[in-house]
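Board notes, transcribed. Complex of a protein with heme C.
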Amino acid sequence: MRTLVMLVLCLSAPGSAILAQGKFPPDSFTNLKVLPKNIDQRTLISTMRGFALALGVRCTYCHVGPEGAPLDSLNFASDDKRTKRTARVMLDMVSHINEEHLADVPDRPVPHVVVRCATCHRGLARPRLLDDELALMLADSGLAALVQRYRALRERYYGSGAYDFGEIVLNDLARVEQRAGRTDNAIGLLSLNAEFNPRSAFIPAALGEAYLQKGDTARAIASYRAALAKDSTQGLAHTRINELTGRHLRRPSSPLLSVAGTYATAVTLVADSCTGTMIRDNPTLVEQQPGDTIVRLTHAAIAASGSVHNDGRFQMAPAVMRISGVSYHVDINGRFEERGFAATVHVAAGDLGQPTRCGYTVRWIGNKRGAPNVIPEAQR
Ligand code: HEC
Ligand code: HEC
């Protein structure tokens, strides 16, 4: 394409009909407006074959003459066909892309990637991507027409690279339809996709979502089960089956983690390299909403927040206290049980990045007054 010259203005009278030349290949070319006028016969013919191959068409797609007739009966010089005139625009476009736009690519890696007709056309005269083709079809003619079209395209083009028949195109279109509330379209698209991708666990899981949206719980569950049969780790299918069958069987829901209350506290200094550390047995207030994993402890007017798990283990976010110009880094973790908690507090004095001045460790026991804690996964 580098040898192409820019579009030269047409000087001959428009529509000048030139009669069939009667010889192929012709001895001379009389109507070249983009290709070099002195192009040799072999290069021109191989360029033309390249066009035909890239677009998946025959010479008569652009040249005037009966389909299937011998080449010497075609009128190659005529510009009567819109497609030939379009091909000139394309030739011009391709040389623009290669010589101007791509030449501006910063630090362009070598060897260069050169744009050719086939780069876009991939064997199609109008190189529309499959997702666009299907979306148009669906909007214009509905699901049944789309299914028919998809099958026909797949039959004709599978393996040619003209269209992407991978799993994703139909899944994406199904998602768009489902979001728009067109659940039946989503189900139809996914069912079609499942036919061609029998090993996919994603498709039955997505079908489950569509049936769920439609209110068809039985089919939803069957689809999630089908997904798990193909891939036992399919997360969505697991979650949904648990939700749906749990509701279905009215299984009592597991008790909610609950540890809030006031705890009588006993603290013991188990290690201390600081001097004059004083600790006090103040009561501890624990704040937590039933079922929640966020917990807040207040002890001697010092509050810490952290997370608590269903087995009672808790961990406070590392905190820094500043007292008399010294930073104290505090780490608290422990475990709630039915009647209280046991925790270890590590305190290190010193500024971050500086050597630790000193540290101490406190054993912190809380005995709960009032209702016992609820620990759903208590370790006994
Ligand atoms: C996609 C459209 C397209 C297809 C398909 C195509 N051509 Fe062309 N052909 C052109 C265009 C455009 C020109 C004119 C180029 C120019 O103006 O520089 C041309 C010019 C020619 C010419 C020169 C005509 C002249 O006297 O000026 C010949 C010969 C020719 N084509 C042969 C063929 C043959 C043989 C085939 C099939 C193998 C073919 N073409 C397929 C678009 C096409
Ligand atoms: C950058 C992408 C791109 C490249 C490269 C490209 N084309 Fe196209 N071509 C298109 C698109 C897109 C269309 C469809 C435009 C439309 O109709 O909306 C098209 C349409 C055409 C058509 C009209 C088809 C029809 O039936 O309406 C012809 C003929 C054509 N191209 C020939 C060529 C030839 C020959 C080359 C190489 C010289 C080429 N194209 C290179 C993108 C490209």
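Residues 51, 55, 83, 86-87, 90-91, 94, 115, 117, 119-121, 125-127 surround heme C (ligand 2) (CB under 6 Å). Residues 82-101 form the longest helix (20 residues).
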